[in-house]
């Protein structure tokens, strides 16, 4: 089967800002694919184009082999979508909202009761009384209640507590085991690392890295630490020796030789930490990038704000 989602050179402008600047993305059948990046990277803009909510200004995209703008109705029949900020009908109960959202997709509510119990959602309460987390639960229950070929989840755990995040992870694994494809956008590194088979890192509307977790981890160094002030015989990075403990980083190509050297040394309390997605993330989003202000629009990097003029002080009239 061909890729479920493909974008090539995708461009989307929001006013004078390029929210997407030639974004290339491939999501394979049956995988849980993470779209990783900070707020303002272009994740939500990408998903809105894929859902057919917005029309791309350049490049092209296909979802399930269809054009999401031209064939949006047909595309949405085969997918379930959870936005990061859910808005519901205030006069409806949670259960009525779940039923309505599910039937809008043309399905039934076959798994409704199990999901309501799992997410601890009271379906009798009116939506206007729900917290952000409970509104999110309504969208998640509606999305997972009926089978879909593709689940598009935009910051789906926003507002959920850790217990509900675990329930969400179980549901993602359940639909993936059934053969569905999941495209998950997040800025939470631990969430992506726990759930995703493949990851695409987005920065300023462009893809800066993409691959399986194993492939991306090769781009970052492994951290080695042990008790015993011994200088490694091989070239390592970030060497620190303090209080009788030695710590350094080593690339994947040198790691086997470092391990062989360590096996012959009198060291204690050895710890070897594989690179995390956080290290990969910081590699592409350093302090200067993270500190850059963002525009109030959905995703694009913020244009520089116009400096405000200082107020003129009224001349004082002294009597």
UniProtKB/TrEMBL annotation:
<keyword id="KW-0067">ATP-binding</keyword>
<dbReference type="GO" id="GO:0005524">
    <property type="term" value="F:ATP binding"/>
</dbReference>
<keyword id="KW-0547">Nucleotide-binding</keyword>
<keyword id="KW-0046">Antibiotic resistance</keyword>
<dbReference type="GO" id="GO:0046677">
    <property type="term" value="P:response to antibiotic"/>
</dbReference>
<dbReference type="GO" id="GO:0005886">
    <property type="term" value="C:plasma membrane"/>
</dbReference>
<dbReference type="InterPro" id="IPR017871">
    <property type="entry name" value="ABC_transporter-like_CS"/>
</dbReference>
<dbReference type="InterPro" id="IPR003439">
    <property type="entry name" value="ABC_transporter-like_ATP-bd"/>
</dbReference>
<dbReference type="InterPro" id="IPR003593">
    <property type="entry name" value="AAA+_ATPase"/>
</dbReference>
<feature type="domain" description="ABC transporter">
    <location>
        <begin position="5"/>
        <end position="229"/>
    </location>
</feature>
<feature type="region of interest" description="Disordered">
    <location>
        <begin position="290"/>
        <end position="319"/>
    </location>
</feature>
<dbReference type="GO" id="GO:0016887">
    <property type="term" value="F:ATP hydrolysis activity"/>
</dbReference>
<dbReference type="InterPro" id="IPR027417">
    <property type="entry name" value="P-loop_NTPase"/>
</dbReference>
<feature type="compositionally biased region" description="Basic residues">
    <location>
        <begin position="306"/>
        <end position="319"/>
    </location>
</feature>
<comment type="similarity">
    <text>Belongs to the ABC transporter superfamily.</text>
</comment>
<protein>
    <submittedName>
        <fullName>ABC transporter ATP-binding protein</fullName>
    </submittedName>
</protein>
<dbReference type="Pfam" id="PF00005">
    <property type="entry name" value="ABC_tran"/>
</dbReference>
<keyword id="KW-0813">Transport</keyword>
<dbReference type="InterPro" id="IPR050763">
    <property type="entry name" value="ABC_transporter_ATP-binding"/>
</dbReference>
